[in-house]
Amino acid sequence: MAPQMVVVEAEESFKGSRKGEVFVLFQPGNDCAPKFKTGGRVLLYLNRSLVGTWEALGCGRIQSLEWAVDDLRFLRALPVSAATNRVAGVVALYEISVSKGFRRVRNLRGIRVHLRSEVSSVEAVTDDEGVYEVYDLAPGNYRIGIDLTKGLKIFFPVIAGGEGPRDRTKDVRATEPVVEIGASTGADVDFVLNFDNQITGRVVDSSGKPMKDVCLQLEPATGEASLHFWVFTCSDADGRYRLADMPPGRYVISAVPWAKGRPHEPTLFYPGTTERKSAQVVGIGNGEHKSGLDFRIPK
User: Fold this and answer.
1) What single-letter DSSP state applies at residue 210?
2) Residue-level pLDDT at 216
3) How far is CA 77 from the centre of its chain?
4) Looking at beta carbons, which pairs linking 280-285 to residues 24 or more positions away fall under 8 Å?
5) How many helices and strands (H and E) does the chain possess?
6) SS3 of 171, please?
7) How large is the average pLDDT for residues 99-116?
């Protein structure tokens, strides 16, 4: 990816700059450095680069204004919002879109959020922008969970702030993450939700015996998928497979057996045909689990 030079003008300023001030950013060519489009409106946290120019660093809280509702809520309430502790976040629905890959669909209103510690229990509800906020908590370790809407599941939480070291690997797997809150701590816990959809079955050979390490991929029944649409799995020792996290739609399941010491065989299509036009189309709805779709590999 090529480096990028960007000229930005501050519409609103919160620290170290003024409204109308112009900044020139030099964004490195690596994939981790955010890149920007002409006319975009973005919440920027700027830093001096190693060569003294301004840079918007990656892996931070830079985001389009459309999705920066939580940060803006805090920034616009300064200095009051920084006078005590605060736990806040956004609950949003994402999907693995066939045409656009992994993307945010919308923020979710009316989701009940529970914050529980040994000394305190508090509830909040996301507003029209999908944001929840809680101030003035008693210090402690808080387990944060949400009431899920039917048909959705927690894909992963996104946690920023809090006190003490964090196990980031554990955070990604947590459905009820824990954050340590002090008297003046700020912490953000966002919840990324997606459709609780899945297709399961077994891969068997022509005699009905289970086949291990047969890799299956989901394809749209019509049209082409983007390079970022990737719903993929391989069968286990009992031949079982599980395809999950796809948005509602109509799909075809394709398979290419992989086995050590054996070349790839031709691609096959569910339920076990070499002709894509003869493949059975599998429809999946919101929150639907389809089981028993056994894929038979012909001899």
Assistant:
1) B
2) 93
3) 28
4) 280/252, 281/221, 281/250, 281/251, 281/252, 282/199, 282/250, 282/251, 282/252, 282/253, 283/249, 283/250, 283/251, 284/197, 284/199, 284/246, 284/248, 284/249, 284/250, 284/251, 285/197, 285/248
5) 2, 24
6) helix
7) 92
Does pLDDT of 264 surpass 70? Answer: no
pLDDT tens, residue by residue, 193-232: 999 999 999 999 999 999 998 999 999 998 888 878 889 9
| H helix or E strand, kind and range, residue 168 | helix 168-173
Mean pLDDT to the nearest integer, 103-114: 95
Q: Nearest-CA neighbor of 9 among 20, 24, 17, 25?
A: 20
What is d(CA 30, CA 36) in angstroms, rounded to the nearest whole number? Answer: 14
Contacts of 208 (CB under 8 A, 6+ apart): none
Dist. CA 231–CA 100, nearest whole Å: 13
